[in-house]
Amino acid sequence: MERPASPAPMHILIVEDNPLVASGIRAGLELHGMDADVAASAAEARAHLAARSYDACVLDLGLPDGDGLQLLRGWRAAGLALPVLILTARATLDDKVAGFHEGSDDYLTKPFDLPELVVRLQALVRRVGGRASDRVRVADYDIDMASGEVLRAGARVDLSRREWALLAALVQANGRTLDTAQLHDSLYRLDEEVGSNTVNVHVHHLRRKLGADLIETVRGVGFRLGVRPAPPGA
């Protein structure tokens, strides 16, 4: 029997020029089941975003090659909807207002408690996905996005970690088509070496367990859920 699925790892971009602070945040997030990449400058942050997609960003404001607010302003002007949590020592009301004015989704001041950072990031991703609750229903499956539990008629469906990550990415897309590169980013870390056909293999395995109609192939584009997610009981 396969191991029960763990919650889908959130992919977080940490933009922080202090290596001790950055490594501490990354280690803490990974202890809570998240994957994290670190950028020590605005230029590195742009490079990371060009290479992969993220669920959220933790953004420091004092960067060596520019102010974090300028970076955020440029992202929003370009239409980037990535949830951003500003994490900074700037603690005045004017600082916070400026952060939200430039497009921040949340604002946390240093020093901070790691558990609070974790729950704030989880709430950001949940809101962006349009979910008031972590429990959703897809076809005849009840899915808990926080625990990774998948039930059908009350019986648990065992998924591997990769299968769960794939399903969670499709559920969070809420009916949108995700291409192979986007799904690859949901399954693997930036520095992992994997084969070119791995996404298709995991789609095949997931269809075998959950039914061929649950995941649709959009020819020449990618994959999407065949049924839109809905809150349980809807």
From TrEMBL:
- Does the keyword section mention DNA-binding? yes
Q: Which residues carry this modification: 4-aspartylphosphate?
A: 60
Q: Does the keyword Signal apply?
A: no
Supply the source organism for this entry.
Melaminivora alkalimesophila
Q: Which residues bind DNA?
A: 133-227
Query: Which parts of the sequence belong to the Response regulatory domain?
Result: 11-125
Sequence ranges assigned to domain OmpR/PhoB-type in this UniProt record = 133-227
Q: Just give the chief location class.
A: cytoplasm
> Matching CDD domains, A to Z?
trans_reg_C
Per UniProt, which keywords does this protein have?
Cytoplasm, DNA-binding, Phosphoprotein, Transcription, Transcription regulation, Two-component regulatory system
A single GO cellular-component term from the record reads: protein-DNA complex
InterPro entries to which the protein is assigned, alphabetical: CheY-like_superfamily, OmpR/PhoB-type_DNA-bd, Sig_transdc_resp-reg_receiver, WalR-like, WH-like_DNA-bd_sf
Q: Which residues form a coiled coil?
A: none
- The molecule here is called DNA-binding response OmpR family regulator
The terms under GO molecular function for this entry are:
phosphorelay response regulator activity; transcription cis-regulatory region binding
Starting at the broadest rank, the lineage of the source organism is: Bacteria, Pseudomonadati, Pseudomonadota, Betaproteobacteria, Burkholderiales
